[in-house]
Design brief:
The chain is an all-alpha fold and 136 residues long. The chain has four helices and no strands. Helix 1 packs antiparallel against helix 2. It is globular and about 35 Å long. The protein starts with 50 loop residues before the first helix and ends in an 8-residue tail after the last helix.
């Protein structure tokens, strides 16, 4: 059973990056995202309904953890002043990092990242209530 895609028109990268196992996606000329188009920056209010956020979910749900981190990082940076969004994106990025560590066989590091992710996502949900996508 395949997972539902949020952006089915986008193709997944040729491989899920693991440090030391594959060419670095953006720094190595053989990388799957070498010289790719820059990410479109969106306003923090629109971040949860953005294609960057959705693409990160697709990547994460299909095991592209490093790539999901890369998709969500610009949203985290855009949320510098948002107490509502910044912890949520940091938690997602940490969860993606935990996925990479699991793939590397580094269970202790994965558990540490996952625990930190839970704190950030949980804190955000307890303090600010549920996140709502920007309505159009």
């Amino acid at each position: 059973m395949s997972r539902r895609r949020l952006l089915p028109e986008k193709n997944f990268p040729g491989y899920a990056y693991l440090p030391g196992k594959h060419p670095h996606p953006v720094r190595d000329p053989l990388g799957h995202s070498y010289q790719s188009d820059p990410v479109t920056v969106v306003a923090v209010e629109e971040s949860l309904s953005s294609n960057g956020f959705r693409w990160g979910i697709d990547l994460f749900n299909h095991g592209y953890y490093w790539e999901a981190h890369e998709a969500w990082e610009p949203l985290w940076h855009a949320a510098k002043q948002s107490i509502q969004h910044r912890p949520f994106f940091k938690g997602l990025i940490l969860l993606a990092a935990a996925g990479v560590k699991m793939r590397e066989g580094k269970r202790v590091a994965a558990a540490r990242h996952a625990a930190r992710a839970a704190v950030f996502v949980g804190w955000r949900l307890c303090r600010a209530g549920p996140l709502r996508p920007h309505s159009e």
